[in-house]
Specification:
The complex is a heterodimer of chains A (234) and B (295). Chain A is α/β, with parallel strands linked by helices and 234 residues long. Chain A has a single domain, classed as P-loop containing nucleotide triphosphate hydrolases (Rossmann fold, 3-Layer(aba) Sandwich), CATH 3.40.50. Chain A is built from 9 helices and 10 strands. In chain A, helix 7 links the parallel strand 7 and strand 8. The termini of chain A are far apart. Chain B has 295 residues and is mainly alpha-helical. Chain B has one domain: ABC transporter involved in vitamin B12 uptake, BtuC. Chain B contains 11 helices and 2 strands; from the N terminus they run ααααββααααααα. In chain B, strands 1-2 form a two-stranded antiparallel ribbon. The termini of chain B are far apart. The chains are: A alpha/beta (234), B mainly alpha (295).
Protein backbone atom coordinates (compact mmCIF):
# COMPACT_ATOMS: atom_id res chain seq x y z
CA UNK A 1 0.00 0.00 0.00
CA UNK A 2 1.18 3.51 -0.81
CA UNK A 3 2.46 5.87 1.85
CA UNK A 4 -0.45 7.71 3.47
CA UNK A 5 -0.91 11.32 2.39
CA UNK A 6 -1.51 12.39 5.98
CA UNK A 7 -0.15 10.45 8.90
CA UNK A 8 -0.91 11.57 12.46
CA UNK A 9 0.99 9.85 15.26
CA UNK A 10 0.88 10.43 19.01
CA UNK A 11 -0.73 13.84 18.60
CA UNK A 12 -1.22 15.77 21.83
CA UNK A 13 -2.75 19.22 21.94
CA UNK A 14 -3.53 21.81 24.57
CA UNK A 15 -5.74 24.89 24.79
CA UNK A 16 -4.05 26.93 27.48
CA UNK A 17 -3.89 24.65 30.50
CA UNK A 18 -6.38 22.09 29.28
CA UNK A 19 -5.00 18.98 27.64
CA UNK A 20 -7.42 18.12 24.82
CA UNK A 21 -5.78 15.47 22.65
CA UNK A 22 -4.04 12.51 24.28
CA UNK A 23 -2.12 10.72 21.55
CA UNK A 24 -4.23 10.70 18.40
CA UNK A 25 -3.15 8.23 15.66
CA UNK A 26 -4.65 7.90 12.19
CA UNK A 27 -3.87 7.97 8.48
CA UNK A 28 -5.53 9.39 5.42
CA UNK A 29 -4.49 7.97 2.05
CA UNK A 30 -4.40 9.83 -1.22
CA UNK A 31 -7.88 10.13 -2.73
CA UNK A 32 -9.76 8.89 0.33
CA UNK A 33 -12.66 10.46 2.17
CA UNK A 34 -12.15 9.79 5.87
CA UNK A 35 -14.36 10.96 8.71
CA UNK A 36 -13.72 11.63 12.35
CA UNK A 37 -16.84 10.68 14.29
CA UNK A 38 -17.50 11.26 17.95
CA UNK A 39 -19.52 13.14 20.50
CA UNK A 40 -19.22 16.81 21.25
CA UNK A 41 -15.93 17.51 22.99
CA UNK A 42 -14.26 14.29 21.82
CA UNK A 43 -11.51 16.32 20.16
CA UNK A 44 -12.49 16.16 16.48
CA UNK A 45 -12.27 19.86 15.78
CA UNK A 46 -9.11 20.17 17.84
CA UNK A 47 -7.55 17.40 15.76
CA UNK A 48 -8.34 19.35 12.62
CA UNK A 49 -7.05 22.60 14.02
CA UNK A 50 -3.89 20.83 15.15
CA UNK A 51 -3.26 19.55 11.64
CA UNK A 52 -3.75 23.11 10.39
CA UNK A 53 -1.42 24.54 13.05
CA UNK A 54 -4.14 26.58 14.75
CA UNK A 55 -3.78 25.14 18.25
CA UNK A 56 -1.50 26.84 20.73
CA UNK A 57 0.58 23.89 21.86
CA UNK A 58 0.85 20.47 20.29
CA UNK A 59 3.29 17.58 20.21
CA UNK A 60 3.67 14.29 18.39
CA UNK A 61 3.96 13.94 14.65
CA UNK A 62 1.87 15.07 11.69
CA UNK A 63 3.38 13.96 8.39
CA UNK A 64 1.95 15.44 5.22
CA UNK A 65 3.30 13.77 2.08
CA UNK A 66 6.11 12.41 4.26
CA UNK A 67 7.12 15.88 5.53
CA UNK A 68 6.86 16.78 9.24
CA UNK A 69 4.54 19.73 9.87
CA UNK A 70 4.22 19.73 13.65
CA UNK A 71 6.58 22.67 14.14
CA UNK A 72 5.34 24.81 11.23
CA UNK A 73 3.17 27.92 11.53
CA UNK A 74 -0.31 27.69 9.99
CA UNK A 75 0.48 29.73 6.89
CA UNK A 76 3.33 27.39 5.95
CA UNK A 77 1.20 24.30 6.52
CA UNK A 78 -1.45 25.78 4.24
CA UNK A 79 1.11 26.34 1.50
CA UNK A 80 2.01 22.64 1.52
CA UNK A 81 -1.43 21.99 0.06
CA UNK A 82 -3.84 21.67 2.99
CA UNK A 83 -7.02 23.75 3.17
CA UNK A 84 -9.39 24.16 6.08
CA UNK A 85 -13.11 24.90 6.16
CA UNK A 86 -14.00 25.70 9.77
CA UNK A 87 -17.16 24.67 11.57
CA UNK A 88 -18.31 28.26 12.01
CA UNK A 89 -17.63 28.69 8.26
CA UNK A 90 -15.54 31.79 8.74
CA UNK A 91 -17.24 33.98 6.16
CA UNK A 92 -15.89 37.51 6.50
CA UNK A 93 -18.52 40.16 7.16
CA UNK A 94 -16.39 43.01 5.88
CA UNK A 95 -15.86 41.28 2.51
CA UNK A 96 -18.45 40.73 -0.20
CA UNK A 97 -19.06 37.26 -1.63
CA UNK A 98 -16.64 37.75 -4.53
CA UNK A 99 -13.90 38.93 -2.16
CA UNK A 100 -14.55 36.02 0.18
CA UNK A 101 -14.36 33.61 -2.72
CA UNK A 102 -11.14 35.07 -4.09
CA UNK A 103 -9.46 35.61 -0.71
CA UNK A 104 -7.37 32.43 -0.23
CA UNK A 105 -4.29 32.79 -2.40
CA UNK A 106 -3.42 30.03 -4.84
CA UNK A 107 -0.88 27.75 -3.20
CA UNK A 108 -0.38 25.25 -5.99
CA UNK A 109 -1.27 24.16 -9.50
CA UNK A 110 -4.55 22.58 -10.47
CA UNK A 111 -7.04 24.56 -8.41
CA UNK A 112 -10.64 24.59 -9.59
CA UNK A 113 -11.66 27.44 -11.84
CA UNK A 114 -14.23 29.88 -10.54
CA UNK A 115 -16.51 28.70 -13.37
CA UNK A 116 -16.42 25.11 -12.05
CA UNK A 117 -17.13 26.35 -8.54
CA UNK A 118 -20.21 28.19 -9.83
CA UNK A 119 -21.26 24.96 -11.53
CA UNK A 120 -21.11 23.20 -8.16
CA UNK A 121 -22.78 26.04 -6.30
CA UNK A 122 -24.88 28.08 -8.75
CA UNK A 123 -26.33 30.20 -5.91
CA UNK A 124 -22.98 31.90 -5.39
CA UNK A 125 -22.93 33.42 -8.86
CA UNK A 126 -26.14 35.33 -8.15
CA UNK A 127 -24.86 36.75 -4.87
CA UNK A 128 -21.35 37.92 -5.75
CA UNK A 129 -21.78 41.50 -4.61
CA UNK A 130 -23.69 40.68 -1.40
CA UNK A 131 -22.00 41.08 1.92
CA UNK A 132 -20.55 37.69 2.89
CA UNK A 133 -22.58 37.24 6.05
CA UNK A 134 -25.87 38.24 4.36
CA UNK A 135 -25.98 34.81 2.71
CA UNK A 136 -28.16 32.01 4.09
CA UNK A 137 -26.44 29.35 6.19
CA UNK A 138 -26.37 26.95 3.25
CA UNK A 139 -24.94 29.54 0.90
CA UNK A 140 -22.29 30.47 3.45
CA UNK A 141 -21.28 26.82 3.67
CA UNK A 142 -21.04 26.64 -0.12
CA UNK A 143 -18.92 29.76 -0.14
CA UNK A 144 -16.70 28.37 2.63
CA UNK A 145 -16.11 25.16 0.66
CA UNK A 146 -15.97 26.87 -2.72
CA UNK A 147 -13.22 29.29 -1.79
CA UNK A 148 -10.79 26.54 -0.74
CA UNK A 149 -11.26 24.63 -4.00
CA UNK A 150 -9.68 27.45 -6.00
CA UNK A 151 -6.32 27.31 -4.28
CA UNK A 152 -4.83 24.07 -5.55
CA UNK A 153 -4.84 22.45 -2.10
CA UNK A 154 -5.11 18.66 -2.38
CA UNK A 155 -6.13 17.78 1.16
CA UNK A 156 -9.36 19.39 2.38
CA UNK A 157 -10.28 19.51 6.05
CA UNK A 158 -14.04 20.02 6.35
CA UNK A 159 -15.33 20.58 9.86
CA UNK A 160 -19.02 19.66 10.13
CA UNK A 161 -20.07 20.98 6.74
CA UNK A 162 -23.67 19.83 7.20
CA UNK A 163 -24.30 21.28 10.64
CA UNK A 164 -27.59 23.12 10.91
CA UNK A 165 -28.44 22.87 7.23
CA UNK A 166 -31.69 21.84 5.54
CA UNK A 167 -31.79 18.25 4.19
CA UNK A 168 -31.77 19.42 0.57
CA UNK A 169 -28.58 21.42 1.18
CA UNK A 170 -27.01 18.50 3.04
CA UNK A 171 -27.71 16.43 -0.04
CA UNK A 172 -26.06 19.02 -2.26
CA UNK A 173 -22.97 19.02 -0.02
CA UNK A 174 -22.94 15.22 -0.25
CA UNK A 175 -22.97 15.40 -4.06
CA UNK A 176 -20.18 17.92 -3.91
CA UNK A 177 -18.01 15.68 -1.77
CA UNK A 178 -18.52 12.80 -4.22
CA UNK A 179 -17.59 15.08 -7.09
CA UNK A 180 -14.48 16.31 -5.25
CA UNK A 181 -13.39 12.75 -4.56
CA UNK A 182 -13.76 11.99 -8.25
CA UNK A 183 -11.62 14.98 -9.08
CA UNK A 184 -8.87 13.54 -6.90
CA UNK A 185 -9.21 15.60 -3.74
CA UNK A 186 -8.44 13.89 -0.45
CA UNK A 187 -10.89 14.81 2.28
CA UNK A 188 -10.88 14.60 6.05
CA UNK A 189 -14.35 15.22 7.39
CA UNK A 190 -15.51 15.89 10.92
CA UNK A 191 -19.11 14.80 11.38
CA UNK A 192 -21.68 14.29 14.08
CA UNK A 193 -24.21 13.08 11.54
CA UNK A 194 -22.95 9.58 10.79
CA UNK A 195 -25.83 8.87 8.42
CA UNK A 196 -24.46 11.61 6.24
CA UNK A 197 -20.90 10.41 6.80
CA UNK A 198 -21.90 6.93 5.65
CA UNK A 199 -23.01 8.28 2.28
CA UNK A 200 -19.69 9.90 1.43
CA UNK A 201 -16.80 8.28 3.31
CA UNK A 202 -14.45 5.35 2.73
CA UNK A 203 -13.45 4.92 6.36
CA UNK A 204 -14.43 6.27 9.74
CA UNK A 205 -12.40 6.90 12.86
CA UNK A 206 -14.23 7.19 16.15
CA UNK A 207 -12.88 9.61 18.76
CA UNK A 208 -13.49 9.63 22.48
CA UNK A 209 -11.81 11.77 25.13
CA UNK A 210 -9.07 12.99 22.84
CA UNK A 211 -8.12 9.59 21.40
CA UNK A 212 -9.02 7.46 18.41
CA UNK A 213 -10.87 4.48 19.86
CA UNK A 214 -11.98 2.66 16.74
CA UNK A 215 -11.66 2.46 12.99
CA UNK A 216 -14.55 1.26 10.86
CA UNK A 217 -14.52 0.76 7.10
CA UNK A 218 -17.63 2.19 5.46
CA UNK A 219 -18.78 -1.21 4.18
CA UNK A 220 -18.55 -2.60 7.70
CA UNK A 221 -20.70 0.20 9.08
CA UNK A 222 -23.95 -1.78 9.07
CA UNK A 223 -22.35 -4.61 11.05
CA UNK A 224 -21.02 -2.18 13.62
CA UNK A 225 -24.17 -0.13 14.07
CA UNK A 226 -24.73 -1.14 17.66
CA UNK A 227 -21.21 -0.27 18.68
CA UNK A 228 -21.44 3.04 16.86
CA UNK A 229 -24.68 3.97 18.58
CA UNK A 230 -22.94 3.43 21.85
CA UNK A 231 -19.94 5.56 20.86
CA UNK A 232 -22.05 8.40 19.62
CA UNK A 233 -24.79 8.13 22.22
CA UNK A 234 -27.57 8.28 19.64
CA UNK B 1 -18.51 95.06 3.10
CA UNK B 2 -21.27 92.48 3.55
CA UNK B 3 -21.36 89.92 6.32
CA UNK B 4 -22.47 86.31 6.79
CA UNK B 5 -24.38 85.70 10.03
CA UNK B 6 -22.90 88.98 11.22
CA UNK B 7 -19.34 87.78 10.61
CA UNK B 8 -17.02 89.28 7.97
CA UNK B 9 -16.48 86.60 5.31
CA UNK B 10 -12.71 86.94 5.55
CA UNK B 11 -12.81 85.83 9.18
CA UNK B 12 -15.29 83.07 8.49
CA UNK B 13 -13.36 81.57 5.59
CA UNK B 14 -10.09 82.10 7.40
CA UNK B 15 -11.28 80.00 10.32
CA UNK B 16 -12.85 77.47 7.98
CA UNK B 17 -9.46 77.08 6.30
CA UNK B 18 -7.75 76.70 9.66
CA UNK B 19 -10.37 74.13 10.56
CA UNK B 20 -9.65 72.16 7.40
CA UNK B 21 -5.91 72.28 8.15
CA UNK B 22 -6.46 70.90 11.64
CA UNK B 23 -8.95 68.47 10.15
CA UNK B 24 -6.26 67.21 7.76
CA UNK B 25 -4.07 66.26 10.70
CA UNK B 26 -6.99 64.82 12.68
CA UNK B 27 -8.05 62.72 9.70
CA UNK B 28 -4.60 61.37 8.80
CA UNK B 29 -3.71 60.57 12.39
CA UNK B 30 -7.03 59.01 13.34
CA UNK B 31 -6.90 56.97 10.13
CA UNK B 32 -3.57 55.48 11.22
CA UNK B 33 -4.89 54.82 14.71
CA UNK B 34 -8.00 53.12 13.33
CA UNK B 35 -5.98 50.84 11.02
CA UNK B 36 -3.60 49.88 13.83
CA UNK B 37 -6.39 49.26 16.31
CA UNK B 38 -8.32 47.20 13.78
CA UNK B 39 -5.57 44.70 13.09
CA UNK B 40 -3.38 44.83 16.19
CA UNK B 41 -5.98 45.53 18.84
CA UNK B 42 -3.54 48.07 20.22
CA UNK B 43 -4.46 51.62 21.11
CA UNK B 44 -1.31 53.27 19.82
CA UNK B 45 -0.60 56.06 22.26
CA UNK B 46 2.83 56.51 20.67
CA UNK B 47 1.09 57.93 17.60
CA UNK B 48 1.61 61.56 18.64
CA UNK B 49 5.29 60.96 19.36
CA UNK B 50 5.67 59.28 15.98
CA UNK B 51 4.06 62.31 14.32
CA UNK B 52 6.53 64.51 16.20
CA UNK B 53 9.40 62.27 15.08
CA UNK B 54 8.31 62.79 11.47
CA UNK B 55 8.66 66.54 11.92
CA UNK B 56 12.02 66.20 13.66
CA UNK B 57 13.42 63.83 11.06
CA UNK B 58 12.45 66.40 8.41
CA UNK B 59 14.25 69.09 10.43
CA UNK B 60 17.36 66.92 10.85
CA UNK B 61 17.44 65.98 7.18
CA UNK B 62 17.33 69.66 6.25
CA UNK B 63 19.76 71.02 8.82
CA UNK B 64 22.22 68.16 9.07
CA UNK B 65 22.17 66.62 5.60
CA UNK B 66 20.81 69.44 3.47
CA UNK B 67 17.94 67.29 2.21
CA UNK B 68 14.92 69.42 1.40
CA UNK B 69 11.24 69.17 2.26
CA UNK B 70 10.33 66.99 -0.71
CA UNK B 71 12.97 64.41 0.17
CA UNK B 72 11.83 64.52 3.80
CA UNK B 73 8.25 63.83 2.74
CA UNK B 74 9.45 60.43 1.51
CA UNK B 75 12.42 59.66 3.79
CA UNK B 76 10.92 60.63 7.15
CA UNK B 77 7.89 58.31 6.91
CA UNK B 78 10.16 55.45 5.81
CA UNK B 79 12.60 55.96 8.71
CA UNK B 80 9.93 56.47 11.36
CA UNK B 81 7.90 53.60 9.90
CA UNK B 82 10.98 51.37 10.22
CA UNK B 83 11.26 52.48 13.84
CA UNK B 84 7.62 51.43 14.25
CA UNK B 85 8.40 48.03 12.76
CA UNK B 86 11.17 47.64 15.33
CA UNK B 87 8.78 48.48 18.19
CA UNK B 88 6.22 46.00 16.88
CA UNK B 89 8.77 43.23 16.48
CA UNK B 90 10.42 43.66 19.86
CA UNK B 91 7.61 44.83 22.13
CA UNK B 92 4.02 45.04 20.86
CA UNK B 93 4.12 41.48 19.53
CA UNK B 94 4.05 40.11 23.06
CA UNK B 95 0.90 41.97 24.03
CA UNK B 96 -1.67 40.89 21.44
CA UNK B 97 -3.21 38.22 23.61
CA UNK B 98 -3.51 40.50 26.63
CA UNK B 99 -6.04 43.17 27.50
CA UNK B 100 -6.02 46.50 25.57
CA UNK B 101 -4.76 48.15 28.69
CA UNK B 102 -1.28 46.64 28.37
CA UNK B 103 -0.81 47.93 24.85
CA UNK B 104 -2.05 51.32 25.93
CA UNK B 105 0.35 51.45 28.87
CA UNK B 106 3.33 50.34 26.80
CA UNK B 107 2.68 52.77 23.97
CA UNK B 108 1.98 55.60 26.44
CA UNK B 109 5.26 54.88 28.20
CA UNK B 110 7.10 54.81 24.89
CA UNK B 111 5.58 58.17 23.97
CA UNK B 112 6.84 59.70 27.21
CA UNK B 113 10.32 58.26 26.69
CA UNK B 114 10.55 59.43 23.09
CA UNK B 115 9.33 62.91 23.98
CA UNK B 116 11.76 63.05 26.89
CA UNK B 117 14.70 62.09 24.68
CA UNK B 118 13.85 64.76 22.12
CA UNK B 119 13.34 67.39 24.84
CA UNK B 120 16.74 66.50 26.24
CA UNK B 121 18.55 67.05 22.94
CA UNK B 122 16.47 69.78 21.31
CA UNK B 123 14.89 71.66 24.22
CA UNK B 124 11.23 72.42 24.39
CA UNK B 125 11.12 75.85 22.78
CA UNK B 126 10.60 74.54 19.25
CA UNK B 127 12.61 74.82 16.06
CA UNK B 128 11.57 76.63 12.90
CA UNK B 129 11.18 74.86 9.56
CA UNK B 130 10.94 76.92 6.39
CA UNK B 131 8.06 76.53 3.97
CA UNK B 132 9.54 75.06 0.77
CA UNK B 133 10.07 77.73 -1.90
CA UNK B 134 7.64 76.22 -4.37
CA UNK B 135 4.79 76.59 -1.87
CA UNK B 136 5.53 80.09 -0.60
CA UNK B 137 3.13 82.94 -1.13
CA UNK B 138 -0.57 82.65 -1.58
CA UNK B 139 -3.43 82.72 -4.03
CA UNK B 140 -6.35 85.12 -4.10
CA UNK B 141 -9.44 82.97 -4.42
CA UNK B 142 -11.70 86.01 -4.78
CA UNK B 143 -13.53 85.45 -1.51
CA UNK B 144 -10.36 84.92 0.51
CA UNK B 145 -6.61 84.80 0.42
CA UNK B 146 -5.25 81.25 0.55
CA UNK B 147 -1.64 80.62 1.62
CA UNK B 148 -0.34 78.05 -0.86
CA UNK B 149 1.26 75.81 1.72
CA UNK B 150 -2.01 75.44 3.62
CA UNK B 151 -3.86 74.54 0.46
CA UNK B 152 -1.17 71.95 -0.25
CA UNK B 153 -1.53 70.38 3.19
CA UNK B 154 -5.28 70.01 2.83
CA UNK B 155 -5.04 68.61 -0.69
CA UNK B 156 -2.25 66.14 -0.04
CA UNK B 157 -3.83 64.92 3.21
CA UNK B 158 -7.12 64.38 1.44
CA UNK B 159 -5.37 62.43 -1.33
CA UNK B 160 -3.40 60.28 1.12
CA UNK B 161 -6.55 59.52 3.12
CA UNK B 162 -8.58 58.62 0.05
CA UNK B 163 -5.83 56.45 -1.43
CA UNK B 164 -5.54 54.61 1.89
CA UNK B 165 -9.30 54.15 1.97
CA UNK B 166 -9.26 52.85 -1.60
CA UNK B 167 -6.48 50.36 -0.93
CA UNK B 168 -8.19 49.01 2.17
CA UNK B 169 -11.75 48.85 0.85
CA UNK B 170 -11.27 48.07 -2.83
CA UNK B 171 -8.12 46.00 -3.39
CA UNK B 172 -6.98 42.45 -2.77
CA UNK B 173 -4.38 43.61 -0.27
CA UNK B 174 -7.13 45.46 1.57
CA UNK B 175 -9.30 42.33 1.53
CA UNK B 176 -6.50 40.45 3.32
CA UNK B 177 -6.28 43.26 5.85
CA UNK B 178 -10.03 43.35 6.46
CA UNK B 179 -10.21 39.57 6.72
CA UNK B 180 -7.26 39.44 9.13
CA UNK B 181 -8.89 42.14 11.24
CA UNK B 182 -11.92 39.85 11.62
CA UNK B 183 -10.34 36.42 11.97
CA UNK B 184 -6.52 36.25 11.94
CA UNK B 185 -6.17 32.47 12.48
CA UNK B 186 -8.36 31.62 9.50
CA UNK B 187 -6.51 34.03 7.22
CA UNK B 188 -3.30 32.41 8.43
CA UNK B 189 -4.79 28.99 7.59
CA UNK B 190 -5.25 30.19 4.01
CA UNK B 191 -1.50 30.50 3.67
CA UNK B 192 -1.08 34.19 4.44
CA UNK B 193 1.73 35.29 6.72
CA UNK B 194 -0.40 37.26 9.16
CA UNK B 195 2.37 38.17 11.64
CA UNK B 196 4.29 39.85 8.83
CA UNK B 197 1.14 41.64 7.72
CA UNK B 198 0.62 42.89 11.28
CA UNK B 199 4.18 44.23 11.40
CA UNK B 200 3.84 46.02 8.08
CA UNK B 201 0.46 47.44 9.01
CA UNK B 202 1.87 48.94 12.17
CA UNK B 203 4.79 50.30 10.16
CA UNK B 204 2.36 51.84 7.68
CA UNK B 205 0.21 53.44 10.39
CA UNK B 206 3.33 54.92 11.98
CA UNK B 207 4.62 56.12 8.61
CA UNK B 208 1.29 57.88 8.08
CA UNK B 209 1.77 59.72 11.38
CA UNK B 210 5.31 60.70 10.39
CA UNK B 211 4.06 61.94 7.03
CA UNK B 212 1.60 64.19 8.87
CA UNK B 213 4.48 65.35 11.03
CA UNK B 214 6.47 66.45 7.98
CA UNK B 215 3.43 68.30 6.65
CA UNK B 216 3.05 70.01 10.02
CA UNK B 217 6.70 71.07 10.36
CA UNK B 218 6.42 74.32 8.33
CA UNK B 219 3.09 75.27 9.95
CA UNK B 220 3.79 74.65 13.62
CA UNK B 221 7.03 74.81 15.53
CA UNK B 222 8.96 71.53 15.43
CA UNK B 223 8.86 70.72 19.11
CA UNK B 224 8.92 67.60 21.28
CA UNK B 225 5.49 68.47 22.64
CA UNK B 226 3.72 68.94 19.30
CA UNK B 227 2.36 65.42 19.13
CA UNK B 228 1.25 65.19 22.72
CA UNK B 229 -0.90 68.30 22.31
CA UNK B 230 -2.54 66.96 19.20
CA UNK B 231 -3.01 63.31 20.08
CA UNK B 232 -5.57 63.92 22.82
CA UNK B 233 -7.84 65.64 20.33
CA UNK B 234 -7.18 62.89 17.80
CA UNK B 235 -8.28 60.26 20.30
CA UNK B 236 -11.49 62.20 20.81
CA UNK B 237 -11.93 62.20 17.02
CA UNK B 238 -11.43 58.43 16.92
CA UNK B 239 -13.97 57.93 19.70
CA UNK B 240 -16.50 60.13 17.89
CA UNK B 241 -15.96 58.41 14.54
CA UNK B 242 -15.90 54.94 16.01
CA UNK B 243 -13.00 52.51 15.90
CA UNK B 244 -12.70 50.34 12.88
CA UNK B 245 -14.25 52.46 10.13
CA UNK B 246 -11.75 53.87 7.66
CA UNK B 247 -14.07 56.34 5.94
CA UNK B 248 -15.52 57.19 9.35
CA UNK B 249 -12.09 58.23 10.61
CA UNK B 250 -11.50 60.44 7.55
CA UNK B 251 -14.91 62.14 7.57
CA UNK B 252 -14.89 62.68 11.31
CA UNK B 253 -11.38 64.11 11.19
CA UNK B 254 -12.16 66.75 8.57
CA UNK B 255 -15.65 67.36 9.97
CA UNK B 256 -14.46 68.05 13.49
CA UNK B 257 -11.70 70.31 12.21
CA UNK B 258 -14.35 72.40 10.50
CA UNK B 259 -16.63 72.39 13.54
CA UNK B 260 -13.72 73.53 15.67
CA UNK B 261 -12.90 76.29 13.17
CA UNK B 262 -16.47 77.53 13.06
CA UNK B 263 -16.69 77.53 16.83
CA UNK B 264 -13.69 79.86 16.86
CA UNK B 265 -15.74 82.31 14.79
CA UNK B 266 -19.08 82.08 16.51
CA UNK B 267 -18.19 81.30 20.10
CA UNK B 268 -14.40 81.41 20.57
CA UNK B 269 -14.63 80.59 24.28
CA UNK B 270 -15.74 77.03 23.43
CA UNK B 271 -13.26 76.36 20.64
CA UNK B 272 -10.85 74.40 22.81
CA UNK B 273 -13.55 72.18 24.24
CA UNK B 274 -16.08 71.78 21.45
CA UNK B 275 -14.61 68.48 20.24
CA UNK B 276 -14.87 67.00 23.70
CA UNK B 277 -18.44 68.24 24.04
CA UNK B 278 -19.27 66.54 20.74
CA UNK B 279 -17.53 63.41 22.02
CA UNK B 280 -19.64 63.36 25.17
CA UNK B 281 -22.86 63.79 23.19
CA UNK B 282 -21.92 61.10 20.67
CA UNK B 283 -21.00 58.68 23.44
CA UNK B 284 -24.38 59.23 25.07
CA UNK B 285 -26.33 58.75 21.86
CA UNK B 286 -24.18 56.24 19.95
CA UNK B 287 -21.63 54.59 22.25
CA UNK B 288 -19.93 52.79 19.35
CA UNK B 289 -19.27 56.11 17.60
CA UNK B 290 -20.86 57.63 14.50
CA UNK B 291 -19.47 55.02 12.09
CA UNK B 292 -18.46 52.30 14.52
CA UNK B 293 -19.75 48.78 14.76
CA UNK B 294 -20.25 47.19 18.12
CA UNK B 295 -17.91 44.26 18.45
Amino acid sequence: MAEPMLSVKGLNAWYGESHILHGVDFDVRQGEVVTLLGRNGAGKTTTMKSIMGLVGRRSGSILFEAGETIGLPAYKIARLGIAFCPEERGIFASLDVAENLMLPPAIGEGGMTVETIFELFPNLRERLSSQGTKLSGGEQQMLAIGRILRTGARLLLLDEPTEGLAPVIVQQIGHTIHRLKKEGFTILLVEQNFRFAATVADRHYVMEHGRIVDEIANDALAANMEKLHEYLGV
Amino acid sequence: MHEIFGIPPQALFGQLLLGLINGSFYATLSLGLAIIFGLLNIINFTHGAQYMMGAFVAWMLLNWLGLNYWAALVIAPVLVGAFGVLIERTMLRHLYKLDHLYGLLLTFGLALIIQGVFRNYFGSSGLPYRIPDALRGGTDLGFMFMPNYRGWVIAVSLVVCLVTWFVIEKTKLGAYLRAATENPPLVQAFGINVPRMVTLTYGFGVALAAFSGVLAAPIYQVSPQMGADLIIVVFAVVVIGGMGSIMGAILTGFGLGVIEGLTKVFYPEASATVIFVVMAIVLLVKPAGLFGRVR
